[in-house]
Specification:
Oligomer: single chain
Number of domains: 2
Helix content: 10-25%
Largest sheet: 4 strands, antiparallel
Structural class: alpha+beta
Number of strands: 6
Strand content: 15-25%
Distance between the termini: 66 Å
Shape: elongated
Length: 137
Amino acid sequence: MQEQIPHNSEIHVQRGANFDFSTIKIDEAVPSTRKFRVFKYKNPRTMRQVKILKCDHSNCRMFFRKWHNFFDHLRVHTGERPFICNEPGCDQSFTQKANLTKHLAVHMRRSKHQCKFCKRFFQTEHLYKVSIPFMAD
């Protein structure tokens, strides 16, 4: 979907190199890139201020209306993966906290469905049906 800016609107453009990040409230650190533009204009129909964040990396045509989505996208270009799994033996990292949370659920399911005798992983319904020869009646 292409963003349609009305032709008769006054558009204020601010480059990322000149942007003051103290004006926005975001919990995460800003990725180390300033290759973007912020377009602001007044929507003639609603008379509200509209903000569009446009990525200026080469061959990137992405634009966003929300800062947090834009910062998540910038990590594609910077290679930043700040959300790291802290499970022993796991070296995966993620660009978004939500993806780390989903990944941690995998670790939780695995430990919940592991056979305490053979250490293999099973679906819940199979975990209790495994026959162990030395434990037979």
